[in-house]
Amino acid sequence: MSNGSALASNTDRERVVARLAEAHVEGRLSVEELDRLTGETHAARTLGDLELVCADLPGGQLGLVTALALLRGESHPERRRMLRTWAYVCAAALAVEIVALLVFVVF
Predict the structure, then answer these.
(1) Which of 18, 32, 33, 97 is deepest in the core (most CB within 10 A)?
(2) What is the domain count for the chain?
(3) Which residues 6+ apart lie within 8 Å of 68 measured at CB?
(4) What angle is formed at CA 52 by the lines to CA 23 and CA 38, rounded to 5 degrees?
(5) Domain that holds residue 72
(6) Residue 2 confidence (pLDDT)
(7) End-to-end CA distance of the chain
(8) What φ, ψ does residue 46 adopt, rounded to 5°?
(9) Which of 23, 45, 60 is the last residue of a domain?
(10) Helix (H, G, I), strand (E, B) or coil at 46
(11) Strand boundaries in 14-75, DSSP class E
(12) How far is residue 103's CA from residue 41's CA, in Å, rounded to a whole number?
């Protein structure tokens, strides 16, 4: 989200809601915070408003589940390519973590 004064689209809002949901699953947001921030997201008019909603969340990177969920509904080819690439990266990182865990447990 580069131009803060640009109007936010429904897709932009959906991405922020997905990011908030992921933060909740990670334990970064309580149910009350998730509800409040989701309401603020739906009320946001500009990309700057959406950036403020996410300001306290660490990093802007998507996790595997969010990338796959967004990929399912994305029609823009460039965004699909980016989300697909990110999903591959996340899946590879997850596979490495699983192998490392198995090596640690077995040995």
Answers:
(1) 18
(2) 2
(3) 83, 87
(4) 50
(5) 61-107
(6) 43
(7) 45
(8) -125, 165
(9) 60
(10) strand
(11) none
(12) 42
Q: In this structure, what are the phi and psi dihedrals at residue 3, rounded to the nearest 5 degrees?
A: -100, 105
Low-confidence ranges of the chain (pLDDT < 70): 1-4, 59-71
Helix or strand (DSSP H, E) at 97:
helix 77-106
Instruction: Report the candidate in 36, 48, 61, 69 with the shortest Cα–Cα distance to residue 1.
Output: 48
Match 């989200």 to its residue by tokens: 1
**Which pair of structure tokens corresponds to residue 18?**
């997905």
User: Reduced to 3 states, what is the DSSP secondary structure of residue 17?
Assistant: helix
68 and 102 both lie in a single domain: yes
Residues with Cβ < 8 Å from 76, sequence gap 6 or more?
A: none
The Cα 106–Cα 42 span in angstroms is 48
Q: How far apart are CA 3 and CA 22, in angstroms?
A: 24
Same domain for 33 and 76, yes or no, is no
Query: CA-CA-CA-CA torsion for 64, 70, 71, 75, nearest 10 degrees?
Result: -160
